Amino acid sequence: MQTAPFQIKKILVKPIPPPLANSFVIKHHYSGKVVKNSQLHLGVFYNYRLCGVMQFGPSINKKGTINLVAGTRWNGFIELNRMAFIDELPKNSESRAISIAIKLIKKNAPHIDWIVTFADATQCGTGTIYRAANFKLVEIRKNDSLRINPDTKKPLHIIQAHHLKINKQFYKWEKVPGYQIKYIYFLKPEKQQNLTVPVLPFSELDKIKYPEKVRHVYKNAPVV
User: Fold this and answer.
1) CA–CA separation, 104 vs 9, rounded Å?
2) pTM to 2 decimal places
3) Strand, coil or helix: what is 22?
4) Which of 38, 133, 222, 223 is an S-S bond match for 55, by CB 3.0 to 4.6 Å?
């Protein structure tokens, strides 16, 4: 029996309860963790099956991030802080889901001018999905906030170290070099003229190289 071909236009995006979103993200996001200040939880459905989750909320570093666009009101931007999809979804499903989410935010939250998000080029990738969804690349920053736990051989973030009260041990652990990539999407295109940093060409991402140790620790990490 043949399986019916996937029809990307049948993807449905709608709000879901936080517990459902959180459990999905914990199971399917590479970090296995949620961002506690997420406020908008959107489920991505296909054939009535939950296949993905996008979580939005205030930026963790709101004071620092708001200055990216001059004149932004305190509630004038939002952060896409978690996005997780099952592997069975075909190519372009993520971009389609982001596009629908953007339309929902425009319609229901007209006070929001722009969306900021990050790609973890230490553990995951450089944000191919965001580029496909027409986000602007605004920062490539070296990131060494991850350390390898010598006992578990797994990475631990500096925020987790503070939470677990193992600061002294954490700073003795081996650094995991990498990058954090920042993207912006303007819900109101005219606001781009207020951007306080330059838009970078995507070709800048070609300069990123994953050290051999990172490729060894993260077997699925792409090499750009």
Assistant:
1) 16
2) 0.82
3) helix
4) 38
6: exposed, middle or buried (Cβ count in 10 Å: 0-12, 13-18, 19+) = middle
The amino acid that residue 42 corresponds to is L
**Whole-angstrom Cα distance, residue 167 to residue 164?**
8
Encoded amino acid at 86, one letter: I
Count the neighbouring beta carbons within 10 Å of the beta carbon of residue 126. 21
User: Which are the contacts of 170, defined by CB distance < 8 A and separation ≥ 6?
Assistant: 147, 156, 158, 161
CA nearest to 99, candidates 185, 172, 3: 185
- Phi-psi sector, 71: left (phi>0), alpha (psi -120 to 50), beta: left
| Residues linked to residue 79 through DSSP beta bridges, in sequence order | 57, 116
Q: Read off φ and ψ for residue 180, nearest 5 degrees.
A: -115, 130
CATH class belonging to 10-143+179-212:
alpha beta
Cβ-Cβ contacts under 8 Å for 117 (sequence gap 6 or more): 79, 80, 81, 83, 127, 130, 135, 182, 183, 185
Cβ atoms of 197 and 68 within 8 Å: the answer is yes
pLDDT, tens digit, for every residue of 85-133?
A: 998 887 788 999 999 999 999 999 999 999 999 988 777 778 889 999 9
- Specify the pLDDT at position 215: 46
Domain ranges of the chain: 10-143+179-212
